[in-house]
Amino acid sequence: MNIADLHSIFLEFPNVCTDTRKITENCIFFALKGDNFNGNKFASDALQKGAKYVVIDEKEYAESDAHILVDDVLKTIQELATYHRNQSSAKVISLTGSNGKTTTKELINVVLSKRYKTIATVGNLNNHIGVPLTLLSIQNDTEIAIVEMGANHQKEIEFLCGIAQPDFGYITNFGKAHLEGFGSEEGVIKGKSELYDYLLSHERNVFLNADDPIQLEKLGSYIKKFGFSTEKHQFYKIEFLGANPFVKIKAEDISINSQLIGSYNFTNCAVAVLIGKYFGVPMNDVKDAIESYIPENNRSQILEKNGHRVILDAYNANPTSMKAALENFKEIEGKHKIAFLGDMFELGETASKEHQNIADLAKQCDFADVYLIGENFNGVRTSMKTFVSFDSAATYLKEHPLKEEADLLIKGSRGMALERLLDFI
């Protein structure tokens, strides 16, 4: 079956599923494969649960007319997504970067949805499967699709651009993330800049942080760029008014008080303002959208727990974001501060050095106490508390509960799941 014919079926049954545990009535199930599973084996099960069609790539599982046999299921869903994207009149904004992608995506979405019918990447489904699923959620009335792109090695962003074919793009920043895959900070810059390469080669529009020298250098004299800056007059001016703890900014004499902590969220808010401005969203609506946005999913949340003020930033971590979080925690008003820091993953050969650097920085911050949790942090040279695992830290907290009310920072990579510490505070 060719993509055009499959797309006709998709338009009639526009719900896509890749997990038999989440089958919806009359959906199309794509039998993807992974290292430890073969979706073809679950195709008939998907039909029994209510799927209208199943797309498979192994002939032995083709049992009925409801089984659509293709050469490669993954390639098919990617090609279908691109075909669907090109049949739509929706504009596609893609964004990538080392830190802040999901928060930035959410902010752009709430701003643009004030005036347009938008769809956006759900959560952080930003890979070779997530991007197609986002594109396939474009509906007839969708005007703008905001597509997040993640990557941990070279050529991945280039590949995702080929699927999404963005009209606009933005890179949040270049930091020390996924060094194991990218090889170095220079590798990160090269890999993330594949979004720029696509946009420039296709003469598409680029949004940028003009205060980032890397972005400014990469885009050079390119005409179709639209940037924000705190000081460069040729770009849209957005002022940073502070973050104690919430980010406050100013644009066109209008102050915006976000519910996002940390100065590192300034650029995330600023680009949402810039993009809102570009697309003609009234500034009062931009202000309302950003001020109403409340972070969730363990991203820069502020919680109260047993008298403690908790900054929960446990969704992910790398050396760049960890450094920013510590510096911000040091600057916010508060007397008794305690930091709980979990291992940073995917750092490859640099892991030992980067964990030592963060431990040294945490020591310099002179907090009341610091807990370093995980195998990497357990190996650093320090006089601070170290724990080889979450369980050992939890056991310690049960035996030595926090007595004095304090401000707490909880940050670590997703695999550490440090939000579990809330049960022991």
TrEMBL record:
InterPro entries with a match to the protein in the record: Mur-like_cat_sf, Mur_ligase_C, Mur_ligase_C_dom_sf, Mur_ligase_cen, Mur_ligase_N, MurCDEF_CellWall_CoF430Synth, MurE/MurF_N, UDP-N-AcMur_synth
Location of the protein in the cell: Cytoplasm
GO CC terms, sorted: cytoplasm
Mur ligase central domain segment(s): 96-275
Mur ligase C-terminal domain span: 299-378
GO BP, sorted A to Z: cell division; cell wall organization; peptidoglycan biosynthetic process; regulation of cell shape
Principal place of residence: cytoplasm
Pathway where it operates: Cell wall biogenesis; peptidoglycan biosynthesis
Enzyme category, top tier: ligase
Alphabetized GO MF terms: ATP binding; UDP-N-acetylmuramoyl-tripeptide-D-alanyl-D-alanine ligase activity; UDP-N-acetylmuramoylalanyl-D-glutamyl-2,6-diaminopimelate-D-alanyl-D-alanine ligase activity
Mur ligase N-terminal catalytic domain boundaries: 15-75
Enzyme Commission numbers on file: 6.3.2.10
Reactions mediated catalytically: D-alanyl-D-alanine + UDP-N-acetyl-alpha-D-muramoyl-L-alanyl-gamma-D-glutamyl-meso-2,6-diaminopimelate + ATP = UDP-N-acetyl-alpha-D-muramoyl-L-alanyl-gamma-D-glutamyl-meso-2,6-diaminopimeloyl-D-alanyl-D-alanine + ADP + phosphate + H(+)
Domain of life: Bacteria
Protein residues bound to ATP: 97-103
Keywords: ATP-binding, Cell cycle, Cell division, Cell shape, Cell wall biogenesis/degradation, Cytoplasm, Ligase, Nucleotide-binding, Peptidoglycan synthesis
HAMAP family: MurF
UniProt family annotation: Belongs to the MurCDEF family. MurF subfamily.
PANTHER family: UDP-N-ACETYLMURAMOYL-TRIPEPTIDE--D-ALANYL-D-ALANINE LIGASE (PTHR43024:SF1)
Functional summary from the UniProt entry: Involved in cell wall formation. Catalyzes the final step in the synthesis of UDP-N-acetylmuramoyl-pentapeptide, the precursor of murein.
Protein name (record): UDP-N-acetylmuramoyl-tripeptide--D-alanyl-D-alanine ligase
The organism of origin for this protein: Maribacter algarum (ex Zhang et al. 2020)
Lineage: Bacteria, Pseudomonadati, Bacteroidota, Flavobacteriia, Flavobacteriales
